[in-house]
TrEMBL record:
It comes from Arachidicoccus rhizosphaerae. The lineage of its organism: Bacteria, Pseudomonadati, Bacteroidota, Chitinophagia, Chitinophagales. It comes from the Bacteria. Gene3D superfamilies: Phosphatidic acid phosphatase type 2/haloperoxidase (1.20.144.10). SUPFAM superfamilies: Acid phosphatase/Vanadium-dependent haloperoxidase. Residues 107-210 form the Phosphatidic acid phosphatase type 2/haloperoxidase domain. This is PAP2 superfamily protein.
């Protein structure tokens, strides 16, 4: 699946776009700089999402929904309601354990709030404008997937703060986010296009928050 393939590319792009400040006692602090190639993965997800959104009845969007109905019609789980927040919880758990993040706590929290605000705002705007009916017919707020947007926002945030220290962590974070998207489809709450676009919204919300942040509260400033 494209989600599982794309998340492996995100961390490499992030590391290429980091510069390092010298004001940390523990290790150099990376500052995220804008780079066009950081748009490749979310851009690919947007293209995939929009192309499948406009599929005809026999297209991938409806074929996957039909496959779920034919083979997993009784599947139900609530795990996705909690899994979407797990990378975000991990970020603050590591902070609580005293493991230095990329930015100080005040700036980190400001970045998280900005990222959440952007993600929630864009997701709500799209949901209320598009009015796509969910596969299970429960309402018309299917596009895009809010759970997936939240999960990928959290995964990207964790990767930005701790990916430079633990190179394996982004792979785990994006795996959890991809799992959230898959579970939303397995629960018959979303089409694949909803998941693709939700993932793109989540990633881009964090990128934009970092690109525009001025680090006003702590000593970890962009240069």
């Amino acid at each position: 699946m494209l989600l599982s393939f794309c998340f492996m590319s995100v961390q490499g792009q992030d590391l290429d776009s980091l510069t390092y400040t010298g004001d940390s006692m523990a290790m150099p602090l990376p500052v995220l700089r804008y780079s066009q190639k950081q748009l490749y993965v979310p851009g690919a997800l947007l293209v995939a999402g929009m192309s499948t959104f406009f599929n005809k009845k026999e297209g991938l969007k409806n074929e996957l929904a039909e496959f779920r109905q034919n083979h997993f019609s009784s599947f139900r789980t609530q795990i996705d309601n909690y899994l979407q927040f797990s990378p975000l919880m991990a970020t603050y758990a590591l902070e609580g354990l005293g493991i230095p993040a990329k930015t100080d706590f005040a700036n980190q929290t400001a970045l998280m709030i900005k990222s959440e605000g952007l993600m929630l705002g864009v997701t709500y705007l799209l949901k209320s404008s598009v009015r796509e009916q969910r596969p299970d017919g429960s309402n018309d707020m299917s596009f895009p997937s809010g759970h997936t947007a939240q999960a990928f926002m959290a995964a990207t945030f964790l990767s930005q703060e701790y990916g430079y220290r633990y190179k394996w962590l982004p792979y785990a974070a994006y795996s959890l986010a991809s799992g959230t998207g898959l579970l939303r489809m397995a629960n018959n709450k979303h089409y694949i296009c909803d998941v693709f676009v939700g993932a793109a919204v989540g990633i881009l919300s964090v990128k934009l928050a970092y690109w525009t942040h001025h680090y006003k509260w702590g000593k970890h400033r962009a240069r």
